[in-house]
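To whoever is on call:

I kicked off a structure prediction for a single chain this morning and the downstream step that reads the tokens threw a length-mismatch warning. I double-checked the sequence; it's 388 residues and nothing unusual in it as far as I can see. Pasting both halves so you can look.
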Amino acid sequence: MMPSAGHPTSSSSAMTSPSPTLTPNLLPSGGHPIVADRPFQGAILTRSRWWAVMAVLLLLSVILAMLCLQLGTQYIGLGQIVGLLWSALFGAASEPDALRTTGVILLQVRLPRVFLGFLVGSCLAAVGVALQALLRNPLADPYVLGVSSGAALGVAVAVLFGIGTTVLALSLLPVCGFAGSLVALLVIYRMAASYDRLPIHSVLLAGVILNAIFSALIMFITSIMEPNRSFGMMAWLMGSLTAPAYPVLSALSAYLLVGLVLLLKQVRVLNILALGEEPARSLGINTERTKRVIFLLAALMTGAVVSFSGMIGFIGMIIPHAVRLVVGADHRLLLPASALVGGMFLMVADTMARTLFVPSEVPVGVITALAGGPFFVYLLVWRKDRLA
């Protein structure tokens, strides 16, 4: 291994030391060292900077959520929103009929839909960050890798056999989506595995193949359904955020929050894995075990998301890149910041989908595809030197 320019080392140290430089002072207050190299250019992450960025993003999330709650076929003023939320939380006196109708629109349609959009966008962006670090490839995304297609196939099979017609059964749909996405990841893993390791270069090709196979199977299942259910399945496949009942939303939140918390615990390992498998192994990281854990979490979160929102693509690709340009590549900040920005992005995209062409409603997957498709081409053509 050749020593870096400007940093002469002895031949023995060059043979025994990994090329990245360990810099423990990158941590805000002790803890594990971070490997300093190209992925960590920019401002050093400190505790105060972490809290400042997260506070700004949380405040912006609340502002955008309030804005999304106001917009729709019927405009609801900010004062009405605050009053109705206060009444719902603390049981204020009954409102006039007109205000009661507005409350139904706000509390039973828009609020769960906005919350669902934020939750779905957050999880897709977080999974995208993890997969890009794990595979060291800017094209890594649940949609591109075929994980979303696998989850959609699992849900389609469940719907074909009648699961999802009751609130209790609806809470099982994330399990079916998880099973489908896990099968997709296992197939990718087995297709790409060689010599007991998971090469990076063949994963995307395996994802493309699986996308084609799973899409064909989904179309077959859709074609043998009853016409009404088939139409609903097609609309769902294009990406759709329909306001769920609160018990169903609670079950979905439990699935996703567990996966998100467990994924956040992997941020220090992701920092090292982003530099490559050899540096990670030299630092004592069990790379194969880490891959399996992250793939399992990605399957859990993607399956739950797809079971309710359909195949919403490109959020896991464009959001991590946009956030990385602003906050840097340290996953301790990149992953939670991307989760918040992804939630905001999908909230805004869904608001556009239901308000731009009133009384018609465009599937939100169309909006995200129109935003993410050109970005995908940009990465593929103009940034091909960055592809793994």
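Update from on-call: the warning came from a stale cache, not from the record. Cleared it. Sanity check on the structure: The first strand starts at residue 21 and ends at 23.
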